[in-house]
């Protein structure tokens, strides 16, 4: 791509327009990294990386002011600030130039495809490309800038896996060797930095390849030791794969379910798409968090594996053990309380629908119990169970085609109810608690709470519509 064409693509990005407006005439500011790489690769340019010789915080604040957005410090260690557009549709990451000039800064960058710079004041100028990153973009190759790239920042091991998957680039053999040599340090970077890369990997276009590359580079044990521990853990005859391979297959099946929601969710598919697109926490949507949950849902199996007489293998309690391990992983990655709780609930509830499949047809009361126990992740975890069941293709009884189809049919029945629960909230008693207590002649307390729960279940099942219905049901339940 010519310098003029590269400049035209950069200038077409709203982030570039706002940045040039804010920093007009600043000849010490350079567009670097991903924006140039993406433009050279023919990808749309949205956000920018900017290297400035002056105050990175001040530059970020000026950009944010021009865009009507906000600015905040991303990393004191790496002297990086982020300017966010008002609608968060783009951002600019501003970093102070390391060294006396831009060439010294490029020498310290991670990969050659990110070690290219053009002046902000003149984006159509010939790019500064001392490591032939443009040629590597054309060859679709990810190559480390120097032999110290991973030693200088072990997060680059995770980033190499993420970028290889995101861009569809091959990793140059020497770069693979360098990453493997530093793999024992992959878990050293701050949890927040690891989470940001993991989020991009998990929610990116090819998370399966990203995880495979992380394994190849030797980084999984440092970044996600809970996932690495699943290698070689054999399962019972319902499964044809060990726990690690099964986990990867669950993710693969979940991606299939995402693509074919109409097939797996029926008429609930449009509402389910909207739910999965909802922002959740830590820049994850619910759909992105569900992918992360698929990776973590069986991490409790190694600790709970038991071999019994006759060769039977069980993992009793792996849902609860897994939730504890998920909580520990989230603490290490510095996730928010909201994301931690969401991932814990996906893990602890991922077996429930499978137990119900043998009970079909499921009563309204049983369905109410499922939704009450799994809220607010009822729809999410139901989809996870679909992917989980599709991934169990062994010779055991629960892996039969009949049992798999029964599970899928049950999921299609449950999903509209789960969506409605998410949208409208749980059923409510038609009579306030104090009025119910008066009608029954009882004092407020645990018994009243229990009876209100019975009434709410009755509303869901259709047994209760009016206040009189509620009182009558409560009297029957109080006597039972």
Please, could you describe this protein's structure?
The protein is of the alpha+beta class and 480 residues long. The chain folds into four domains: 1-132, Beta Polymerase, domain 2, CATH 3.30.460; 140-220, Hydrophobic Seed Protein; 224-424, no CATH class; 433-479, no CATH class. Helices cover 56% and strands 9% of the residues. It contains 27 helices and twelve strands. It has helices spanning 3-11, 14-22, 34-40, 56-67, 102-107, 133-139, 149-152, 155-167, 173-181, 191-203, 207-216, 220-223, 225-228, 243-259, 261-265, 269-276, 286-296, 301-304, 318-333, 337-348, 352-357, 364-374, 378-390, 401-424, 433-440, 446-461, 467-479, and strands at 29-32, 48-52, 70-75, 80-84, 91-96, 117-119, 141-142, 170-171, 279-281, 284-285, 306-307, 313-314. The protein has a six-stranded mixed β-sheet with strand order 3-4-5-2-1-6. It has a two-stranded parallel sheet with strand order 7-8. Helix 8 (155-167) packs parallel to helix 10 (191-203), helix 14 (243-259) runs antiparallel to helix 17 and helix 22 packs across helix 26. The longest helix is centred in the C-terminal third of the chain and has 24 residues, at 401-424. It starts with a helix and ends with a helix.
């Amino acid at each position: 791509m010519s310098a003029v064409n590269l400049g035209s693509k950069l200038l077409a990005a709203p982030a570039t327009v706002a940045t040039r407006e804010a920093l007009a005439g600043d000849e010490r500011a350079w567009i670097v990294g991903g924006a140039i790489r993406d433009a050279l690769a023919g990808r749309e340019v949205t956000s920018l990386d900017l290297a400035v010789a002056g105050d990175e915080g001040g530059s970020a604040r000026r950009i944010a002011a021009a865009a009507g957005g906000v600015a905040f410090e991303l990393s004191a260690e790496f002297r990086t600030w982020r300017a966010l557009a008002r609608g968060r549709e783009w951002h600019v990451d501003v970093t102070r130039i390391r060294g006396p000039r831009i060439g010294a800064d490029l020498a310290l960058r991670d990969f050659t495809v990110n070690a290219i710079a053009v002046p902000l004041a003149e984006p159509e100028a010939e790019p500064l490309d001392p490591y032939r990153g443009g040629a590597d973009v054309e060859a679709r190759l990810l190559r480390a800038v120097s032999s110290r790239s991973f030693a200088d920042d072990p997060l680059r091991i995770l980033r190499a896996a993420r970028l290889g998957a995101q861009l569809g680039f091959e990793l140059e053999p020497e770069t693979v060797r360098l990453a493997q040599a530093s793999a024992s340090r992959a878990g050293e970077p701050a949890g927040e930095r690891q989470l940001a890369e993991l989020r991009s990997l998990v929610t990116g276009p090819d998370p399966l390849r990203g995880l495979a590359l992380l394994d190849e580079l030797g980084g999984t044990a440092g970044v996600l030791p809970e996932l690495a521990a699943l290698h070689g853990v054999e399962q019972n005859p319902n499964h044809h794969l060990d726990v690690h391979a099964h986990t990867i297959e669950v993710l693969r099946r979940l991606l299939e379910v995402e693509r074919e929601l109409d097939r797996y969710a029926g008429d609930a598919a449009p509402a389910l798409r909207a739910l999965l697109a909802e922002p959740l926490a830590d820049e994850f949507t619910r759909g992105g968090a569900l992918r992360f949950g698929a990776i973590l849902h069986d991490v409790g199996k190694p600790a709970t594996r038991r071999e019994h007489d006759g060769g039977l293998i069980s993992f009793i309690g792996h849902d609860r053990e897994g939730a504890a391990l998920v909580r520990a992983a989230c603490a290490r990655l510095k996730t928010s309380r909201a994301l931690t709780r969401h991932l814990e609930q996906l893990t602890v509830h991922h077996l429930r629908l499978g137990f119900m499949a043998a009970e079909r047809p499921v009563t309204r009361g049983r369905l109410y119990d499922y939704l009450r126990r799994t809220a607010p992740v009822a729809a999410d975890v139901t989809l996870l169970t679909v992917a989980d069941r599709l991934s169990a293709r062994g010779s055991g009884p629960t892996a039969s085609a009949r049992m798999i189809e029964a599970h899928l049919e049950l999921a299609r029945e449950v999903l509209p109810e789960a969506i409605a629960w998410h949208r409208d909230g749980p059923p409510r008693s038609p009579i306030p608690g104090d009025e119910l207590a008066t009608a029954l002649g009882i004092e407020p307390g645990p018994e009243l709470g229990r009876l209100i729960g019975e009434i709410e279940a009755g509303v869901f099942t259709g047994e209760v519509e009016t206040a009189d219905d509620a009182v009558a049901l409560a009297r029957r339940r109080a006597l039972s």
